[in-house]
Amino acid sequence: MSEESERQTGGGESTLTVLLAGGVNLAIAIMKAVAGVITGSGAMLSEAAHSVADTFTEILLLTALRRSGRPADVMHPFGYGKERYFWSLLAAVSIFASGATFALYEGFSTVFGEPVEQSSPIVGYVVLALAFAMESVSWTQAFRQVRRGAAEQNRTIWKFLRYIDDPAPKTVFLEDSAALIGLVLAFAGVFLHHVTGSAVYDGIASILIGLLLAVVAYVLGRTNLRLLIGRQADLTVVRGIREYLSAAGEVESVVDLQTMLLGTDQILVCARVDFDDALSAADLERACVRLAAELHDEFSDVTEVFIEPVPRSDPELRAAVLARYGDIAKRYGR
């Protein structure tokens, strides 16, 4: 499958990661819900809500992957790439609204409500063990995708997750990591309830699961918010574009360079360039067309390029650039 085809269908590996996570979460949600009813464990029911929230999240991510791949049209000349960020933001909200809220409610109800007798704890242990094994399969796929992406960009995993422009693998990876931690918390709650006879431990486990989900929802929500409102491209790519334009024979100086993520692997480049004054109008036109084409070829994620010829001595333009970038603008000689 070509790069363009993968972009329009949502990306092969991201789709596989999301589908695998969705199928696993649905099966686990049913198991946990049954075990929660049988054992009377609030932590188990909280984990069931956790898995239900994760299942809804995968549905939203699949929607994001499909809808964001539609080609540009008259109403959306830059395409639908940012839809991926919108649906992923809704996925983060669903984690908090359904998973975290239910887990916190269940936890406080267990701690401060009427004591609940635990029954058949062995069922809970078996289900939690099976759920951990199944979640590990999904987590392994998500981790492999994240690790591969980090290696391709020569970055640590955490730095890669911080700057990634595809929310799907980050969402699944954090979801599955939270799921594994949540299962450990649920096991601790069920075990301590079993050993001590006190449901307080079960309730505390539910509260911790709710707080864990709230943190994950916040991190993912913040990530998608930044992407949705228009984050600049990776700084390594921005520096590469600047250096490439500055090295062109017709260019005297790159006065201003703005980039924005239009979607996953889609970058808009707007450059204000001071060209050699000896160029004719025809030479200037040819230089702009050639440089735009070369940027497309040199940087695979660059999809749109706009180059505006400007004089670097213009005081209003210089003031605007300095106001936007501050000391960084001075460092680059803007």
> What is the CATH topology assignment of the largest domain?
Alpha-lytic protease prodomain-like
**Amino- and carboxy-terminal Cα gap:** 42 Å
* Content of β-strand: 5-15%
CATH superfamily of the largest domain: Cation efflux protein transmembrane domain
Mean model confidence by pLDDT: 85
- SSE topology string: HHHHHHHHHEEHEHH
Summarize the structure in words.
This protein has 334 residues and is mainly α. The chain has 2 domains: 3-229, Cation efflux protein transmembrane domain (Alpha-lytic protease prodomain-like, Up-down Bundle), CATH 1.20.1510; 235-331, Alpha-Beta Plaits. The protein contains 12 helices and 3 strands, in the order αααααααααββαβαα. It has helices at 3-9, 12-39, 42-67, 83-112, 121-152, 157-163, 167-196, 200-229, 235-246, 281-298, 315-325, 327-331, and strands at residues 251-263, 266-275, 302-309. It has a 3-stranded mixed sheet with strand order 1-2-3. Helix 10 (281-298) links the parallel strand 2 and strand 3. Helix 2 packs antiparallel against helix 5 and helix 2 (12-39) runs parallel beside helix 7. The protein is elongated and about 85 Å long. The chain starts with a helix and ends with a helix. Residues 1-10 and 329-334 have low confidence and may be disordered.
SSE blueprint and pairings:
Elements: H1 3-9, H2 12-39, H3 42-67, H4 83-112, H5 121-152, H6 157-163, H7 167-196, H8 200-229, H9 235-246, E1 251-263, E2 266-275, H10 281-298, E3 302-309, H11 315-325, H12 327-331
Helix pairs in contact: 2-3, 2-5, 2-7, 3-4, 3-7, 3-8, 4-8, 5-6, 5-7, 7-8
